[in-house]
Amino acid sequence: DWAQNGNDSAQAVPSLVGYAKGFEHIQIPYEIVDSQHLDHLDPLKLLIMPWPLVVNALASERIITWVERGGTLLVESELASFDDQGFYQDPHSRRLAQELGFESQGRRPLAEGERVLVPVSEESFALTASGWSESLVDLNDNRGGDCQVVAHSVGSGRVLAIGTFVGSPYARDRYQDFESFLRAMVRISNVVNPLACNIADGSLVTIRSGRSGDARMLYALNHQPFDVSLEVDAPSKWFTGSPEIHRLSGQGAMTLKDLGNGRMACSFTMKPNAYTVFWWQKEASAEHEV
């Protein structure tokens, strides 16, 4: 980023932040995978590579294997166009892109307000472009020709390559098509969020759950300047044995209602601009959960 754009560059970080904001807004948990800890890839179903200009050889091999085993990869423009020492790599020598079935044909400046139409399954999304427009050729398509988007299968997985940067504009300005695009990517990757909240907009309320040893914890943040009543739809198996639920911050109890079909409604209230944490532990005999 700095080598191309100097000290005033503001492309790489917003590219990452845009996707993080998008997932926060649609209430989908995510994690940031460091290139030095690629063992974290194994349980993931969807991997997004924003501003992926530098990818080292070890990371490339792990990513190829992960996709071939069934992962879904979304990658932005100029994949591995520089090596880990900062040297530019000709498109014909970018092994990662070629193994994933596409190749760069060069790039051009963007027109003002340009958007790229990105297909996902049977839908298409008009996403705001930034940086530049890169022409891509699908190496699996015998018809030839180039385009801004390549989408195809690789082994048991799939790849969606976009010849521009669509995360960065969302970091600056929120818009619906980008969020719908992320939901579609989550859906085709078979990612399942175990939680659903009656306030779905993550900019208003944030809901997360995690483990602490054998205990389950539920976190909630109210970003609004007034009281809210929340109902969180969660798996019933989290409450096997009718555990005692402790509220570690805030006031008031959580009430539970069995919704059937293995789901439980968890209701509680929150103060303005506040957070709360619930903690409970299932009986020792309860079935182990992941």
What does this entry show, briefly?
This protein has helices at residues 2-5, 12-25, 57-68, 95-99, 167-172, 176-188, and strands at 46-49, 72-75, 102-108, 115-120, 123-128, 133-138, 149-154, 157-162, 196-197, 205-212, 215-222, 228-235, 246-249, 255-260, 263-270, 275-281. With 290 residues, it is α+β, with helices and mostly antiparallel strands. The strands form five sheets. A four-stranded mixed β-sheet has the order 1-2-8-7. A four-stranded antiparallel β-sheet has the order 9-12-15-14, with no helix packed on it. The chain has a four-stranded antiparallel β-sheet with strand order 10-11-16-13, with no helix packed on it.
Description:
By secondary structure, the protein is an alpha+beta fold. The protein has 6 helices and 16 strands. The longest helix has 14 residues.
